[in-house]
Specification:
Blueprint: E1 8-12, H1 17-28, E2 32-36, H2 47-54, E3 59-62, H3 74-97, E4 104-110, H4 133-146, E5 154-160, E6 162-164, H5 168-178, E7 185-186, E8 219-220, E9 222-224, H6 225-237, E10 243-247, E11 253-254, H7 255-266, E12 274-275, H8 276-285, H9 291-294, H10 302-306, H11 316-347
Parallel strand pairs: 1-2, 1-3, 3-4, 4-5, 5-10, 6-9, 7-12
Antiparallel strand pairs: 8-11
Helix pairs in contact: 1-6, 2-3, 3-4, 5-7, 7-11
Length: about 350
């Protein structure tokens, strides 16, 4: 790429709240953004168009995949896996065929790839891979990313913790807290089910949902959306970062502290503690999975911090307060705009 050329990023999954924030950042950095998706200018079912999009691009970033904020029915399980593996495979084929392939390809992954950990943190070089449905999705996803030889393209899997922002996970936590379920969440016995059983070519784990006596001390690894965007920019520009990279605050919380912080953020003095079976019922209504708050995710971003990355929002209380304030402003702005539109229409 010459000095006068506009750099190009191929961005898949930009309709989600993470992808849209990253897209805005690349536009602000002067990039031409080529969007890939089911309803984007470049569609997944058009390999020729995908090849043209990748050709000559500087960066590829892929956040495509069905949201895990749902019940793990058989249909949803299959879609969650296929939407990640198939899109990653399509990009890998396009990159492999390009005469001028991108220099870096960042692909979403998840910090849930690590085991339920109460004893020590998981880093990129010492973390232990877990088992079961969510882990199998993550390992299949990453296996597809790193398959084959792409000598001119640096590949990175973004092992993101739960992202704090105006997205599905944070909205679910705020909803539970407003419903009065903002107390500590205790793992334990639940009615047997098979929704967390393994999946893919090499399914792992038990057919029955695991549970642990965590006493509300399960770890909650998280990251603010601003730091996700900053990390993507940082990885883009630091040429020696490759392979799996943990995207998580260096200050993970415990569930009891998380829920206490959420209560303060939304102005609830008390919250009902929740046992596993209670969460199963509540999250059937939402609908999502208790695993999102009951699995002990203890993840540290060693590769990023060793490379010199600094988090803007390392503290959970500050991060949640920031998100809650932003949401309030956004709702006020939307309400004000709707009121103005209604008044203008009436006057006309």
């Amino acid at each position: 790429m010459t000095k006068d050329q506009v750099p190009v990023v191929v961005l898949a999954g930009a309709s989600g709240f993470i992808g849209s924030a990253v897209a805005d950042a690349f536009v602000g950095d002067g990039y031409e953004v080529r969007l890939v998706g089911r309803n984007a200018p470049v569609r997944w079912d058009d390999p020729d168009a995908l090849g043209r999009a990748v050709e000559g691009a500087d960066v590829v970033v892929n956040f495509a995949g069905k949201s895990v904020n749902c019940r793990y029915t058989d249909r949803n399980r299959d879609e969650i896996l296929a939407s990640r593996v198939q899109t990653t495979r399509a990009l890998r084929v396009a990159v492999a065929r390009a005469d001028h392939p991108p220099r870096v390809w960042m692909n979403a992954s998840t910090a849930t790839i690590y085991r339920h950990a109460m004893d020590r943190a998981n880093t990129e070089d010492s973390g232990e891979i877990g088992s079961g449905f969510s882990v199998d999705v993550a390992t299949s996803w990453e296996r597809e990313l790193f398959e084959g030889s792409l000598p001119k393209t640096r590949r990175v899997s973004l092992r993101m913790a739960i992202v704090v922002g105006d997205g599905p996970a944070t909205r679910m936590l705020f909803t539970l807290t407003r419903w009065g379920l903002g107390g500590t969440q205790f793992d334990g016995w639940c009615p047997p089910h098979r929704r967390y059983r393994g999946i893919g070519d090499h399914p792992t784990g038990s057919d029955r949902a695991p549970w642990h006596r965590t006493h509300g001390r399960q770890k909650f690894s998280w990251v603010h959306i601003d730091d996700v965007v900053a990390a993507v920019r940082f990885i883009r520009d630091v040429e020696n970062l490759s392979g799996p990279i943990n995207i998580a605050s260096p200050q993970p919380s415990e569930n009891s502290a998380l829920m206490r912080t959420l209560r303060r953020a939304v102005g609830r003095r008390v919250g009902l503690p929740s046992l596993r079976w209670m969460l199963e019922l509540a999250m059937w209504v939402i609908p999502t999975e208790p695993e999102l708050v009951l699995k002990s995710r203890w993840v540290i971003p060693k590769a990023l911090t060793d490379a010199g990355f600094t988090f803007s929002h390392p503290n959970l209380e500050e991060a949640l307060t920031d998100v809650h304030t932003r949401r309030g402003r956004a709702n006020t702005t939307t309400t004000g705009a709707a009121r103005t539109e209604k008044t203008t229409s009436h006057a006309a």
